[in-house]
Design brief:
The structure holds 2 protein chains of 2 kinds.
Chain A (H helix, E strand, L loop, with lengths): L7 E10 L2 E11 L2 E6 L6 H9 L6 E6 L7 H7 E4 L11 H10 L5 H14 L15 H13 L5 E5 L7 H16 L3 E5 L3 H5 L4 E6 L2 E7 H7 L5 E7 L2 H9 L4 E6 L5 E6 L2 H14 L4 E6 L4 H8 L8
Parallel strand pairs in A: 3-7, 3-8, 5-6, 6-7
Antiparallel strand pairs in A: 1-2, 1-4, 8-9, 10-12, 10-13, 11-12
Helix pairs in contact in A: 3-4, 4-5
Chain B lengths: L1 H9 L2 H20 L5 H20 L7 H38 L3 H5 L5 H33 L2 H9 L3 H29 L3 H14 L5 H4 L3 H6 L11 H6 L7 H24 L9
Helix pairs in contact in B: 2-6, 3-4, 3-6, 4-6, 4-8, 4-9, 6-8, 6-13, 8-13
Classes of the chains: A alpha/beta, B mainly alpha.
Chain lengths: ~325, ~280
């Protein structure tokens, strides 16, 4: 398989709903792994996902998913699974029947469809409720049915629109573990979520979008480094945080210090991360302060979202 | 030409056929056996109920058989073709696409590995099976109940007289009416958020069609079916308008003409579904 056929490619894709902008001139290449779409409500995340799966057509530009286009439904949807955020199902149907109906449309034998339906329902921990009508399910259970339907045919690309909505903490953790496992196996996972802290922990890449425009994309740490006008925050765990803070403030690039709540660490904000680490090494060598751990405190998706998009949803 | 033939042979016809069959079975199960379809059962069987009451409570002297034959022909032409099948098909076929848009479940089909044309044709097949099961059963029951009261004379009329041919023609009319209206309403449900106003226009069009120029008469389901009626009903008053036959047409030309119209409407529907978008918030 060549490089292009292994990626999801947007080439100058725009989508307008009448006069309303969905997304504008998106050029993007997404390699295998877990990619998180981040943006406020109405930013264009769902439009991007719907474009990828052919539920809406681009007004201009081209896109392909691992070299395939949704027009070739047979080949495309054998490789792609999409868990939408539409919380609705055909009336009066059970989870088992719903999955079975979906799988039979792939042309497989009934025995194979039974096997895959059972496997998918067990994977999302819905085996016991499979023969109850979906209408009687909780929101979290309905979310799990949609997830089971999206993964049942073993796609190579899995697109998940707000997959953690309605899930309790235990189910969220299980879902995240499942996503991580699928990502490790070489799948494409495209996830949009408002629960950034949780998704951030498993993401390889982040795509920031607001108002239909792409703001930034790439590895989370790379994106954070590129936001140079926002000083980076580092948490240093040590035995004498006050002393460390005073030493750091002696240099120009250190602009803020805040004690950790437990008194055993300090959050330091610096405009020059390379100089900062160099100085920190010097202090450690002097032995005045015993440093336990050093970790970036704001290179997660949540912080990047705040810096680039802001709480009001407008890109800065 | 040879290249085109090779390309056609290489298409996955077997898979498409299997997908179409399975989709049809799913749709029939979801549409036919639900409480929401109960009003369509009522539309199909209300004449059957009335004819049954007629059978139980009225006397059936042999002299009344021609009147009952005319009444049955009137029920088929005025009730079933213009009202019962019309609105029954509106209910069945407009639900197939628009109903799933309203319930926000159409995307599951559009995300399945099924060509959209196969999806549309399978939905049309499912709607047709549902409509035919109801209305063919109703017509056969109407026919049987109408002549049951005449005993041996009734049986003789059916098996040795013109009765069997009349039943065949009624069944042909019902089949073509279900397919014709079904194709039209399936298309309307893709074109309009609420297909009912457009269906009312079709209803009016069908009503005034007999007095339109012969070219325009060809864009009508009922105008083809009129030519298939085995009995000419004496029209009086407002009914006379519906009985006008401007150009006499043979039965097979009428059938073939209507099948062509159905094929044209379905072809356009296939073209439309290729670009159908899921926008539930605006739909």
């Amino acid at each position: 398989m060549n490089a292009v056929n292994d990626q999801i490619v947007f080439e100058n894709v725009s989508k307008f709903y009448g006069e309303v902008l969905g997304v504008n001139r998106i050029s993007l290449t997404i390699p295998p792994g877990i990619t998180t779409l981040v943006g406020p409500n109405g930013s264009g995340k769902t439009t991007l996902m719907n474009l990828m799966t052919g539920l809406v057509q681009p007004s201009s530009g081209r896109l392909s998913v691992r070299g395939l286009e949704p027009g070739d439904a047979n080949e495309f949807f054998r490789n792609v699974g999409y868990c939408t955020q539409f919380d609705s199902f055909p009336r009066g149907i059970t989870a088992w029947q719903f999955l079975l109906d979906s799988l039979l449309l792939y042309g497989m034998s009934e025995m194979e469809a039974h096997r895959l339906a059972r496997e998918a329902l067990e994977r999302v921990e819905l085996g016991n409720a499979a023969f109850r009508k979906i209408a009687g399910y909780s929101k979290g259970m309905r979310q799990k049915v949609r997830l089971a339907q999206a993964i049942a045919h073993h796609p190579r690309v899995l697109i998940l629109d707000e997959p953690l909505n309605g899930l309790d903490p235990m189910a969220r953790a299980e879902s995240l573990a499942l996503f991580e496992e699928l990502g490790r196996n070489g799948m494409h996972l495209i996830i949009s979520s408002h629960i950034l802290d949780e998704v951030d922990s498993i993401s390889d890449r982040v795509v920031l979008i607001t108002g239909g425009y792409l703001v930034a994309e790439g590895n989370i740490h790379q994106v954070r480094r590129e936001v140079q006008d926002k000083p980076m925050q580092v948490l240093v765990r040590c035995d004498r945080p006050e002393l460390l803070a005073s030493r750091m403030f002696a240099v120009n690039h250190c602009v803020e210090a805040r004690m950790h709540a437990d008194g055993k660490g300090v959050f330091l904000r610096t405009g020059d991360i390379d100089q900062f680490y160099s100085l920190l090494n010097g202090i450690a060598v002097e032995g005045l302060v015993k440093i336990d751990t050093v970790a970036p405190a704001d290179d997660d998706a949540n912080a990047i979202y705040q810096y680039l998009i802001g709480s009001d949803g407008s890109a800065s | 030409m040879a290249t085109m033939k090779n390309e056609l042979l290489q298409k996955p016809w077997g898979l498409w056929w299997l997908q179409g069959r399975r989709l049809t079975a799913i749709e029939v199960r979801r549409n036919l056996f639900s409480w929401r379809a109960s009003w369509i059962y009522f539309l199909a069987f209300i004449p059957t109920l009335i004819i049954f009451i007629h059978l139980v409570f009225d006397t059936h002297p042999a002299i009344a058989m021609p009147d009952d034959t005319n009444i049955l022909a009137g029920v088929v032409e005025f009730y079933y073709v213009r009202l019962g099948i019309f609105f029954g098909c509106l209910g069945i076929f407009s639900r197939l696409i628009r109903g799933e848009m309203t319930e926000r479940s159409l995307h599951f089909y559009l995300l399945s590995p099924v060509r959209r044309e196969i999806l549309l044709l399978a939905k049309f097949a499912a709607g047709s099976i549902s409509a035919l099961l109801l209305f063919v059963t109703a017509i056969v029951a109407d026919f049987a109940l109408m002549y049951a009261g005449y005993g041996a004379a009734g049986r003789d009329y059916i098996f040795n007289g013109p009765g069997a041919h009349q039943l065949e023609m009624y069944l042909l009319i019902v089949v073509l009416a279900c397919l014709g209206y079904g194709a039209v309403f399936l298309l309307l449900s893709m074109l309009f958020r609420n297909p009912t106003p457009a269906a009312m226009l079709v209803f009016a069009w069908e009503a005034i069609n007999p007095v339109l120029p012969s070219l325009l008469q060809k864009i009508s389901v009922a105008s083809y079916l009129r030519h298939l009626m085995p009995i000419t009903i004496p029209g009086q008053g407002i009914f006379a308008l519906l009985m006008v036959k401007t150009d006499p047409v043979s039965g097979w030309i009428a059938s073939f003409g209507l099948l062509l119209l159905i094929a044209a409407v379905l072809s356009y529907s296939c073209y439309r579904i290729r670009t159908l978008e899921i926008r539930y918030t605006t739909d």
